[in-house]
């Protein structure tokens, strides 16, 4: 089963952007920062699990460490001063874990971005060939809707001898859903 690269990159980017809000929570000493971090780590785990990424185990370990830090706040905190010190230590430990989690998400993204970028480059080349041969505009004009446009263009990419090798290379890099999305993005960028 091949993952949909573009979907993973979009979802992981949303989590990365959300992590900046967690940093703001830490900076402003919000008491719910540790709990919000654990929730964010859980959603990161779900994403990595769904897309079968190797960073799942280290990220799960970070969540376990965050939970352990949070659990430590309540043990042996007898006086108000000791509870405050324990909360500061927990929050600080959670902030360090957030940085490590961000690094793991970046690692997962960095592993897939080159595949997406190479597939996009190949698709642009194939579409340029179809334009040169006068086929692309005819395919677009014959389509009755956006889905049919993409289907016709992708079918031509797979069956036309001058671009079929490129289509095979694209499918070696990304899933067909990615290919359709990259075609759509290219057509939009070129205003076709």
Describe it.
By secondary structure, the protein is mainly α. It is 82% helix and 0% strand. The protein contains 8 helices and no strands. The radius of gyration is 23 Å and the shape is elongated.
Number of strands: 0
What is the 3D form? elongated
Radius of gyration: 23 Å
Mean pLDDT: 87
Main sheet attributes: strand count, strand direction, barrel closure: none
Helix/strand/pairing category: mainly alpha
Q: Which percent range fits the helix content?
A: over 70%
Terminal residue distance: 32 Å
Please work out how many helical segments DSSP would assign. 8
Low-confidence stretches: 73-77
Q: In what range is the share of β-strand residues?
A: under 5%
Q: Summarize the helix and strand pattern as letters.
A: HHHHHHHH
Task: Outline the secondary-structure elements.
Blueprint: H1 5-27, H2 33-50, H3 56-74, H4 80-132, H5 136-142, H6 146-159, H7 164-173, H8 176-189
